[in-house]
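Usage

Read records sequentially. Each one opens with the input sequence:
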Amino acid sequence: MHPSPRRGALLAVAALAVSAVQFTSPAVADPAAAAVSKCGPLDVAFVLDDTGSMGGAIANLKTGINSIVNDVVTASGGDYQFGLVTFKDNVTIHNNLAPGNAAAVTNYVTNTLAAGGGGGEPEASDEALNTVVNNRAAAGRPQNVDFNGTWRSNAMKFVVLVTDARPGGFDDAHGAVDVANAAQWANDALGKGIKISPVYVPTSAAFTPVITPIMQNYATTTGGVFTQTTATGAGTADAIRKQLSDCRQTDVFMRDQVSDTGVEANPNGTVWNSPDIKVCPGLADCGAGTQPVVGATNYVHVRLNNPGPYGAGTASGVLKVYRTPAGGGTTWNNATNGDWVFIGQQALTVPAGVTVAKIPWTNIPGPGHFCLLARWVSATDPMTFAEGPNTALNTKNNNNIAWKNFQTIRGRVLEPVRSWFTLGNATGRDAKTDLVLTAEKPVRGTVVVDLGRELLERWRAGGGQSAGVKQVGETAFQFDPQRAGLFGIPLKPGERHTAELTFTPEAPGEYLTSLVQFVEGEDHGGVAYQVLTDRE
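and closes with the structure output:
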């Protein structure tokens, strides 16, 4: 059985068609339909228009806020965060996303939230979304404080927007730039796996033809639901309850090994040589061993498989790819990417079956030996396990992540060919690491690892333990081509050091060698080196 509650059975009557317009009023709403599906972790930000024309909707929301909040607490199994933002021609943050803050949000809505002012339509709904989706700071904006809560990668993420006005930025004027900005914030939300579910309160029918397409686009782009209430705002709370009950799951996965079926956490072997990632010189398919051409534009081809074991249906999301020097111990950080450099992304709709994304990789730096990381980000398919700094553990735990670390090295008999391996420490503490060579098809010849002076001194400080190696230079060691290792190399948190490998084959052929970094017996990443040797 899957370890996360987010994959639980869903209440059928709560399911809504993605981006469909829903009309609701007290006469037709069924509050029981909104409660009690087990959604897993939930992050919910309310973005509310509190201008004078919204009096009816706010009054309705006040009567229903306890039910809305209780639904979220129950559906999340108590694992939730709320955010609360209001807007006129400015943005006011009342609650940042924070664990267990139901009481604070409920108290504000019940006792303080009131409709008033606004200075005429339009309002800053687009900039309020920008604040919440993109964690905007207050500096330089008519915004009271920073929105700095953390959107969790393992939570289903909702923004509920309630307004009766056209988006007008901060200048109290609606124009093409505001429509473009609204579309941009929707795209940003898609890239972060956030659903925007807007509730339109049609207090002025004259604006409806303008507002409706904008709000529908929020929902269509992000996988949310667009709802229109009555002109009096009646049914606002019930609309929100229905929107938040829609936690249906899709499950797109990338394989860690050929035998991987998407089970989390992956019970199989290494997770750093995914068969679903490769680099090709163009859009056409290519062999698995193709290396990127330095200085040119190549394409990262990523195979997405749908469905996995934890959801079904056509999925929408964004595939993001990253690079780092070939090696192990890479650090991931949700805010800054850690050791990983962003390459590019592609928004995709993934039907049942296999979809191949092809993301351009421009200006590839030398020497051309990289790890690649692919992450599928979707509002209906969040990470099951919260991502931490250890890339290997993130990849093992989440079928939305795949890691490719495969190098093809071509040479001739008795001519040395070189590559590199970068050791890192992603544990967040001082740790000792082992560097271990194994071979599926051992090199007929020599394999030399040059640690460099800093790593050599670290290894000696850690006790100088080894197996299957002999020193052949000031900082270099010849490894037994079948199995060898250097053990107990101390590294500080976040450190990365690069060792140079030299393969000198004595016979033509195809050889496959892996160099793997272990920390306390746990695989923290490796590189598979395919050495192709010709006679001449």
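Summary fields computed downstream for this record:
- Residues 1-37 have pLDDT under 50 and may be disordered.
- The longest strand covers residues 522-534.
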